[in-house]
Amino acid sequence: MEQSRRNPMAMARARHALTQAGLDPSVELVAASSVTNEVWLTPTHVVRVNRRPNQRLRREAILGPGLPAEIGYPLVVAYGGRLGADWLVVRRVPGEVLSRCWPSMSVAQRRDAIRQLAAKLRRLHRTPGPADLPRIDAPQMLRSDTLSPVMSLLVALDQARALDHVDRGLIDDAEQMVFDLTPAIEPFDGDYLIHGDLTFENILWDGERITAILDFEWARTAPNDLELDVLLRFCCFPQLHVAPDYRHETHARDYADVPWWLADDYPELFSHPRQLDRLLLYSIAYDVRDLMSAPPRSAVELDDPHHAVNRLRATVQRRSHLDMLDTAVV
Fold first, then answer.
1. What's the pTM value of the predicted model, to 2 decimals?
2. Which residue of 21, 23, 267, 283 has the smallest Cβ count within 10 Å?
3. From CA 275, how far away is CA 301, in angstroms rounded?
4. Same domain, 80 and 123
């Protein structure tokens, strides 16, 4: 947020988007926290600018108008831009980011929020994906359009053996684990939507109710329990998934009950006989993609316990965040 506020080019991109959307470009702009995009607020609209060359916001512009009303997704006003600077303008929805509110919420408020979230997720997971939704390289290296859902993951693991500062023995163990766990996710298909990046940064709360689930850039059709991969990461390591300005007040202990509450309210999401195996494979597929996107440039980077290499090692050694969760949930 602070970086955007100090960056005149970021503000210029937002004003250009307002102009292209037919809105007043001179209106006051307030930079909002975001982990992935440049986000600006006007009194009535939200402007998001994606600086990555993937046009994720185009997918959201296509998807948003077809989402069920219960999700609370805002009205799409306009989409445009170019590769590396595409933008989306939507109407503002009442509420504050849930992860900002969470530290000061009572246990009763938190419990009610999860009950509401479960209902909205169940509705989303019964929504067919639009036929014209462009494909996206998902956070997890798993695909439904290949002979095996793990083909791209296995290719990436093979490439990872050549990376500097990455233990080949770790990659061998991860590969074997993928072979062992793959039957748990087959067939890997789904006709209904998942959000794909479900953290509390993407949920709005007005003090009594969830008013909207936002940021559907990574939404796609997939098995509904794939939704748990990012969500459980968020619950266990929330400080890694929020904007820097309130990271210091974001603690895992405040989210410790969330997986259990969600399992109570949405038991179908946790009902597969091999649920833990599925989640472990989802986790490997996420971490390998992260590793290949940003390979370690020096051994010093591996001092970070949350580096993709260390997360992968924890999963292989069965001491990951998933293994720490009670088996009643996973």
1. 0.93
2. 267
3. 32
4. no
